[in-house]
Design brief:
Layout: E1 5-10, H1 16-26, E2 30-35, H2 37-43, H3 46-52, E3 58-65, H4 69-80, E4 86-90, H5 95-104, E5 109-113, H6 121-126, H7 133-146, E6 151-153, H8 159-166, E7 171-174, H9 193-198, E8 203-206, H10 208-211, H11 216-228
Parallel strand pairs: 1-2, 1-8, 2-3, 3-4, 4-5, 5-6, 6-7, 7-8
The protein binds orotidine-5'-monophosphate.
Domain Orotidine 5'-phosphate decarboxylase: 6-223
Organism: Bailinhaonella thermotolerans
Function: Catalyzes the decarboxylation of orotidine 5'-monophosphate (OMP) to uridine 5'-monophosphate (UMP).
Length: 236
């Protein structure tokens, strides 16, 4: 069987049984499963063992921490023992906050979320970021990497520009991924899995196009097969 595709399936389920079922169905095909606020706030740390199972799949803990450095350090320390491969913080929390998270969870890649993929340029302007989304994303990416983030979350629209800024060593993660013709739902800055990879993404976050399918395992397998046919991004 081919190696798992660089996809993190967002297990945004209302209950643990559903999330664990989805995890079991998709893990033969994908490298990573993502636990977000919905599951973590309902079930707490036990959710990690339930979705990890015996498969050895990587777990991405998406808590999007955003608070003063001391509080974020404490939160990152509290979840570090769960050994997530990635833990998200909001880059807009600033350099000291990102550094505090990175120091508190040294075995985990701190993934700094730049500008949410659900935000349009008018939305961004309304919260005080003037200019194109790409500029804000690049600025936040450089700040986050300088503060110790080893991964960044951005949309597929900005990933090539971010790569040019931060170089080859940083893991670039893109949500806002939809197979051609799929409903974009609340996502705004979107692209197909093939486009996101061709632009230089290392890991694609995909939720509802997989978990909303009648057969999530088959949906994950189909996307994994499609991206295996995609030419790799230029060598970096
Ligand atoms: O940090 C994230 O994972 C994230 C950042 C972002 O900018 N946009 C975004 O959609 N996400 C997450 O990625 C997942 C996307 O899910 P779908 O829209 O169902 O594919 C959700 O779990 C979001 O919480």
């Amino acid at each position: 069987m081919s190696s798992p595709a660089p996809i993190a399936v967002a297990l945004d389920a209302p209950d643990l049984e559903t999330a664990a079922t989805w995890a079991g169905l998709v893990t033969p095909h994908v490298s990573t499963v993502k636990v977000g606020l919905e599951l973590y706030l309902r079930y707490g740390p036990d959710v990690i063992a339930s979705v990890r199972g015996a498969s050895g799949v990587q777990v991405f803990l998406d808590l999007k921490l955003h608070d003063i450095p001391n509080t974020v350090a404490g939160a990152a320390r509290a979840v570090a023992r769960l050994r997530p491969s990635y833990l998200t913080v909001h880059a807009a929390g600033g350099a000291a906050m990102i550094r505090a998270a990175a120091e508190a969870a040294p075995q985990t890649q701190i993934a700094a979320v730049t500008v949410l993929t659900s935000i349009s340029e008018p939305d961004l302007e309304a919260v005080g970021f003037l200019g194109p989304a790409r500029d804000a994303v690049r600025r936040l990416a450089v700040l986050a990497v300088g503060a110790g983030a080893r991964a960044l979350v951005c949309s597929p629209h900005e990933v090539a520009a971010v790569r040019a800024e931060v170089g080859p060593q940083i893991t670039l993660i893109t949500p806002g991924v939809r197979p051609a013709g799929a409903d974009t739902q609340d996502q705004v800055r979107v692209a197909t899995p093939e486009e996101a990879l061709a632009n230089g993404a290392d890991l694609l976050v995909i939720g509802r196009p997989i978990t909303g399918a009648a057969d999530p395992g088959a949906a994950a397998a189909a996307i994994a097969a499609a991206i295996r046919r995609t030419p790799a991004a230029p060598a970096r």
